Amino acid sequence: MMTNQATGAANPVLAEFVRGNMVENRHRGAFCVVDQHGEIVAKAGDISALIYPRSAIKSLQALALFQSGAAEMFDLDDKDLALACASHLGEEFHVAGVSRFLEKIGLTAADLECGAHLPTNKAARKALLASGQQPSALHNNCSGKHAGMLAVAKALGVDTKGYIESEHPVQVLVRECVERVLNVQLTPDHCGRDGCSIPTWGAPLINFAQAFAKMSSGSNELPTVYANAGDRLFKAAASNAELVSGTGGFDTDAMNVFAGDLMLKIGAAGVFCGALRGRNWGFALKCDDGNMDAAHAIVAGLLSAIGGNSDEIENVLKTMKVQVSKNWRGFEVGHMQSASEIASYF
Amino acid sequence: MMTNQATGAANPVLAEFVRGNMVENRHRGAFCVVDQHGEIVAKAGDISALIYPRSAIKSLQALALFQSGAAEMFDLDDKDLALACASHLGEEFHVAGVSRFLEKIGLTAADLECGAHLPTNKAARKALLASGQQPSALHNNCSGKHAGMLAVAKALGVDTKGYIESEHPVQVLVRECVERVLNVQLTPDHCGRDGCSIPTWGAPLINFAQAFAKMSSGSNELPTVYANAGDRLFKAAASNAELVSGTGGFDTDAMNVFAGDLMLKIGAAGVFCGALRGRNWGFALKCDDGNMDAAHAIVAGLLSAIGGNSDEIENVLKTMKVQVSKNWRGFEVGHMQSASEIASYF
Predict the structure, then answer these.
(1) Contact B307, B245 (CB under 8 A)
(2) Closest Cβ opposite residue B19 in set A6, A117, A192
(3) CA pair distance A313, A45, nearest whole angstrom
(4) CB < 8 Å to B288, chain A
(5) Is B64 part of any domain?
(6) Helix %, strand %, coil % of chain B (to 5)
(7) pLDDT (mean) for A189-200
(8) What confidence category does residue A175 fall into, taking pLDDT thresholds of 50, 70 and 90?
(9) Residues β-bridged to residue A324
């Protein structure tokens, strides 16, 4: 039975903030690494508890681009697909890319229903503010995913209006695709609205890890169209990593240093999903309290604990495994770090 | 023995973020309520574990104003004392108040070593940015405490320079005062630097609750000067609540609606300390993961669970017990709430 437990045994501490010589804050969570057969390689905490994957599964939601025929109909290229999988930082090249995507499907930014927010990238934010312009839906970190969902609506031949609602044919198809690859029935009993207004469905953590392994390996447990699409989406994201996050983004830097071997995607409220393409391993993690700095430290600790990394990779992971905090005067006051115990779960 | 445990039994969930119809994030923590004799009225979690109190004990640190003779020497009034206990929002009246405080002791903003940051209050922040001015150390939420520490330096007849360092006579005296009222020896083994650059010392959660009860009751366990000072500081803070936080600040709103019966002070990384003046009860809480929204929900849940509140008080507490979250489109996507179990610990 799927449970969304609150009591029971607590998940272990996977990251902590150290101030001076004492731990100030503790971040508990669960993670799971599985091989291409879905067998557990490593796990910590309750991996059967339901989590909201949030933006970490944009690549699973993007399966609807293939299932609906939109990918072929609009001749979507790897850049379009990477943007469909992205939580981008709102830089000029992201905005231009999503504009181009919308143009391909004969729509505009006015059709996006994700809402507007300032670019997440600091330089892009400053530049936009200095220009006196207001942020548009194109700057929303989810605008690429929404362009993809609009493409699905066009391919299905339905009105695009209200494509963010769970009963709209677009979200019905997206849900079917995600259910198929997760091998879980998603129900309105465990459903919320995401920051960008589409539904997010609760499912067990382990199923997300298994889904990423299947997507990576083009598993024969999946219908051929899904298996092919999974492989193509992961390749597109990993080889256009700057579109998936952006300048200075951890997903981007990590995917780049792994040189195609890593598909990594952050989700709000402390989630990461990913796959090591060479081994066809999938993984998923959730920080119980939703802290993003902690989730960054945990995923870096996890990727490091998996082992076999070059010094170059370890150097990139190190910047996230230990994140130094400075105060208003510039004194180093503490650091977020992944728990050393992470390695012991392997 | 004082411990700073990481493993052992986990603290209970005291707040949770609900998205749609499922809990998305869980926030564990510990709290303790004691009577005027230091006896436990209610507790949850490990109350013997060390925590950093951060800004929640500015009123204890302000005892040094009395121990050094600074309060008398500079004829400090209730507004000065309230500012010394404050984490203010950087509004005009805070800046003016701290400027006046500094003038009284013959110093200026240039002597403050807290660093500068933009006002925490949104309107004040916008106004400052629109004026083209840079934020100064006066806008730092801790500037009142720092003015107080400069007053201590003057009363001690020592150079003010470096008053933020733990070996400086000011911090040595502040530490002695806090140790005395906490009844705990503070050691460099559990010490960090705070956001405003002064030391913060780790001590067991229960001792902070007991210290607040002693301060409130003018306990005869304290030297007379401390007992009198405690009473005066709490009265000054509770009756000048707008100086302690500011417009829309929870500490301010809560103290105002309790009409003098509540001393409440937030600390960074999920801490609250306070006292119910009528009963001379003290309390302290720490959210394990440092989440401030969760800490707000927990303290509101705690004040509500203590009981005996008017409808007017409950209405103010309700706004913090359940904090609604909206997304970029303005849809209500979820809410932070205090755990209903809080009442069961009483």
Answers:
(1) no
(2) A192
(3) 27
(4) 25-26, 289
(5) yes
(6) 45, 20, 35
(7) 96
(8) very high
(9) A335
Chain B: residue nearest A329 by CA?
A: B115
Residue closest to A286 by CA, chosen among A263, A302, A305:
A302
CB A284 within 8 Å of CB A237: no
> What are the pLDDT digits (tens) for A39-52?
999 999 999 999 99
Q: Is residue A290 a part of any domain in this protein? A: yes
Beta strands, E only, chain B: 13-19, 22-34, 40-44, 50-51, 191-193, 199-201, 203-204, 262-267, 271-276, 281-287, 322-326, 332-338
Query: What pLDDT score does A218 carry?
Result: 85
Task: Please compute, for residue B327, the number of CA atoms within 13 A of its CA located in the half-sphere on the CB side.
Answer: 22
Alpha carbon distance B17, B337 (integer Å): 6
Pairing of strands A40-44, B22-34: unpaired
Measuring CA to CA, which residue among A77, A78, A331, A57 is closest to residue A194? A57
Dist CA B203 CA B195 (whole Å): 18
CATH number, domain containing residue A174: 3.40.710
> What is the helix (H) or strand (E) element at residue A306, kind and residue range?
helix A292-306
Q: How far is A194 from chain B (nearest CA, A)?
A: 7
pLDDT, position A6: 47
- What amino acid occupies position B146? H
Q: Hey, what's the torsion of the CAs at A77, A81, A82, A88, to 10 degrees?
A: 120
Q: How far apart are CA B176 and CA A148, in angstroms?
A: 63
User: Closest partner residue to A27 among B23, B194, B289, by Cβ?
Assistant: B289
What DSSP string runs through A218-233? T-TTS-HHHHHHHHHH
* A72/A58 Cα distance (integer angstroms): 19
Q: Which residues of B fall within a CB distance of 8 Å from A140?
A: 328
In a domain, A5, yes or no: no
pLDDT in tens, A229-285: 999 999 999 999 999 999 999 999 999 999 999 999 999 999 999 999 999 999 999
Q: What mean pLDDT, rounded, does chain B reach?
A: 95
Comparing C-alpha atoms, which of A60, A282, A51 is closest to residue A176? A60
The total of structural domains in chain A comes to: 1
Among A117, A191, A327, whose Cβ lies nearest the Cβ of B115? Answer: A327
Amino acid letter, B292: M
- Amino acid B8: pLDDT: 64
| Residue B318 belongs to domain spanning | 13-345
Helices A143-156 and A92-104, packing angle to 10 deg: 0
With vertex at residue A205, the alpha carbon angle to CA B9 and CA A59, rounded to the nearest 5 degrees, is 145
Tokens at A100, concatenated: 């181009």
CB A66 within 8 A of CB A225: yes
Distance from CA of A10 to the nearest CA of B (A): 6
Q: Using pLDDT thresholds of 50, 70 and 90, give the confidence band for residue A1.
A: very low
**B108 within domain boundaries:** yes
| pLDDT at position B5 over 70 | no
Dihedral-angle region of residue A157 (phi above 0 means left; psi in -120 to 50 means alpha; beta otherwise)? left
pLDDT-based confidence at B6, cuts 50/70/90?
Answer: very low
| Per-residue pLDDT reduced to its tens digit, A132-160 | 999 999 999 999 999 999 999 999 999 99
User: Taking the complete model, does pTM exceed 0.90, yes or no?
Assistant: yes
CB-CB under 8 Å, B19 with A140:
no
User: What angle, rounded to 10 degrees, do the helices at A250-257 and A311-321 form?
Assistant: 160
Q: Tell me, what amino acid is at B121? A: N
CB A241 within 8 A of CB A251: yes
